[in-house]
Amino acid sequence: MKGFFQLISSKDFLELFDSFTTLDTEEVDLVNGLGRILAQEITAPEELPPFSRSTMDGFAVRARDTFGCSESEPAMLEIIGEISMGTSGQAISLNPGQTCRIWTGGELAARADAVVMIEYSHLLDKQTVELFKPVAPGENVIRAGEDTTSGQQVLPRGRKLRPQDMGVLAGLGITSVTVHRRPVVAILSTGDELVPPEEQPGPGQIRDINSTTLAALVEESGCIASTIGIIGDDFDTMFATCEKTLNGADMILLSGGSSVGKRDFTLKVLEKLKNSELLAHGVAIRPGKPTILARIGNKALFGLPGHVASAMVVFYLLVRPLLLKLGGMDAPLNLLPLTVTTGEQIPSAIGREEYVRVQLLWKNDNNLPVALPIYGKSGLLSPLVKADGLLVINRDCEGLDKGETGKVLLFPVQH
């Protein structure tokens, strides 16, 4: 029988990523930038907004002309014009006792420093308005440069672009960004028992689940998934496929065959590939113990467990962090940790970190959410579907009692 692997801690496993470097950069149009990772800090080339503008429909005023006014003693001002949308408000200059109409988004008149909402006004005639509410300087106004000043850092390097980030860049006239190239991940499922999802399994066969699941996890991480397909339990075929796949991929995920069984060839294949360096075989976590990591240059090769639950946990804990690093994001895990209390006793064995699939119950009495374990073997799918995240149990802990505080790593939420 083959010798068993040497287990290392998840912390030691993550430290192996220090030898990998971030991928090169490329320029993309802003409209294609959603979810991309900035390779450079972005500073504002100009002020935003470029002029002081009203946030309300109403009257642009010198705030001092409204001080002390009320419904019983309104301020009576002379209307000297109207600022149309898309025109310069600086063409109108207010003297004491004067005002002008203005609409939301319009540029403030020269010497105006506030806006009285139209709800607090009453027209006496075309040239005169009564104002019933005093305003302070800056009220109902966004000043020039209040959002962003010229030369200010807008977004840091390593930022994953969100819709609001893209909106700021568009407002500043930035129409292209320098980002890190998205890692390309090749996905191979191994096993003589596997058939594609579209086929009807024969006796002793099952549909390939891991390819679809891992591809979705890769895309969810902002990377490019390349599903290669199914490889039988044949060393030569597996080796040739991996060798060919390396050319266009930054990472290979081989699911199945990572343990020490008679027909588990993943380790042999990864060791035989030219210039391959085996970094780890075995990590002290449950599920996911037989995980393999090798490297060829800056390319990573993972051997993942064949059971889908184990493969998914390993992806979130060990694969995703490396993908984020390759893609330029400064985030070791990027799974949101949430403090919870346990809804029942959850046992665990000392010696391995355990990641328990849990469902969260949200209460309305300001208590912490309650985590309930979803038990099931690592080959079962329904526990994954029901789970909201992974409850972390440390390697030196025999489990958590009911009502004890713990930490759950939340799965990314899709809406």
CATH superfamily of the largest domain: MoaB/Mog-like domain
Oligomer: single chain
| Strand order within the widest beta sheet | 7-4-6-5-9-8
Low-confidence stretches: none
Number of strands: 28
Q: What is the CA–CA distance across the termini?
A: 48 Å
> Structural class, from secondary structure content?
alpha/beta
Named CATH topology of the largest domain:
Molybdenum Cofactor Biosythetic Enzyme, Chain A
Describe this structure in words.
The chain is an alpha/beta fold and 415 residues long. It has 4 domains: 160 residues, MoaB/Mog-like domain (Molybdenum Cofactor Biosythetic Enzyme, Chain A); 52 residues, Molybdopterin biosynthesis moea protein, domain 2; 90 residues, Molybdopterin biosynthesis moeA protein, domain 3, CATH 2.170.190.11; 74 residues, Beta-clip (Beta Barrel). Helix content is 16%, strand content 30%. The strands form 8 sheets. Strands 7-4-6-5-9-8 form a 6-stranded mixed beta sheet, with no helix packed on it. A 6-stranded mixed beta sheet has the order 16-13-17-21-20-18, with helices on both faces. Helix 3 runs parallel beside helix 6 and helix 4 crosses helix 5. The longest helix has 19 residues. The relative contact order is 0.13.
